């Protein structure tokens, strides 16, 4: 069978085939799903994207070795924080990582992870970089985007080389939020913000709202919330 017929047959079958769906209780792995139109649906899941900023300029100015060290350090810290915060890492994509959270505290856990990632960049990665390279003037920075919505997980790709695609507003909005380039390092949609427990909403001494309301002009002028706060990791 030639390549052209393979592609034509797959497109025809995919659009014609009925979906088989079931409610999700845990975040699935690729082997939990068929390559056919098979999906796991979550009434609500929270998606977190953590993205390094300025990575193209980083490679151009620092060279690939130092840039790779920054990538590795950032993705390790972000990945460990997501796992420790009851999230599941669903993909690494270049200089970003995606995590999915489910359960009663899902959005609170994701927001705390975002604040912890900010702390790790400021208090672990940048000091280690400066300590190793005397005269270093480069500062690592990141943006985390978080949204929560109904989400479906489906398996995609070719046999022997496939992964899960996450379909739903939360996956798209969380990724898009990382494109906001302001002083705030962690971003939430309004729906995610309204699902936060007070411990992830208020901080400082005296307690105050850690999130500032903005209008997302690049995306239909919807309200979003950004934070410059961080959450220290004590152990």
Give a written overview of the molecule.
InterPro entries: A/G_cyclase, Nucleotide_cyclase. Residues 46-178 form the Guanylate cyclase domain. This is Adenylate/guanylate cyclase domain-containing protein. With 235 residues, the chain is an alpha+beta fold. The protein has a single domain, classed as Alpha-Beta Plaits (2-Layer Sandwich). It is 37% helix and 31% strand. It has helices at 3-16, 55-62, 64-84, 106-132, 169-177, 190-194, 198-201; strands spanning 20-23, 38-52, 88-93, 96-101, 142-158, 161-167, 186-189, 202-203, 208-209, 212-216, 222-227. The strands form two sheets. Strands 1, 2, 3, 4, 5, 6, 7, 10 and 11 form a nine-stranded mixed sheet that branches. A two-stranded antiparallel ribbon has the order 8-9. Helix 2 runs antiparallel to helix 3 (64-84) and helix 3 runs antiparallel to helix 4 (106-132). The longest helix is centred in the middle third of the chain and has 27 residues, at 106-132. The chain is globular and about 60 Å long.
